[in-house]
Amino acid sequence: MKWAALLAGLFSGTAGAMGLGGGAVLIIHLALFTDTSQLKSQGINLLFFIPIALAAVTVYSLKKNIKWRLVLKTSVWGLAGSAAGLMVTGRIGGEITGKIFGGLLIIMGLLEIFGKKEKPLDKKEEK
């Protein structure tokens, strides 16, 4: 089991290049290789996210790369969506939630494989 956790950690480090976040790898690992329910796996993933997000916000804030007014506007809608998602998940249960999550991962993977690739911008076009 320790090897599965090590592999999940290594895979999550490279998952971003494949269009899959490390959090998704953590959820998959917990659901498949441990006796953890889908809902509990998602909750654990959210707990892991908090210190990582705080570190990222600190770094980007020091670099003045955060538009705080936009953050406040989008945070209100994000919190409302999270509350709605929590209520819906509580009603439909973990089994259906797991199937929805798996379906979204499959769709994301297919879009990464078959989706239209954007051309990188020239340095001149960025300005």
Keywords summarizing the entry:
127 residues, mainly alpha, 5 helices, 80% helix, 0% strand
How does the SSE layout of this entry go?
Blueprint: H1 2-15, H2 22-33, H3 38-62, H4 68-114, H5 123-126
Helix pairs in contact: 1-2, 2-3
Question: What's the gist of this structure?
Answer:
This protein has 127 residues and is mostly helical.
**SSE series:** HHHHH
Mean pLDDT comes to 80
Largest sheet: none
Shape: globular
Uncertain spans: none
CA radius of gyration is 18 Å
User: How many separate domains make up the residues?
Assistant: 1
The computed structural class is mainly alpha
Euclidean distance between termini CA atoms: 50 Å
How many extended strands?
A: 0
Oligomer kind? single chain
Number of helices: 5
Q: Helical residue percent?
A: over 70%
Percentage of residues in DSSP E strands? under 5%
Walk me through this protein's architecture:
It is a single chain. The protein has about 130 residues and is mostly helical. It has one domain. Helix content is about 80%, strand content about 0%. The protein has five helices and no strands. Helix 1 runs antiparallel to helix 2. The N and C termini lie far apart (about 50 Å).
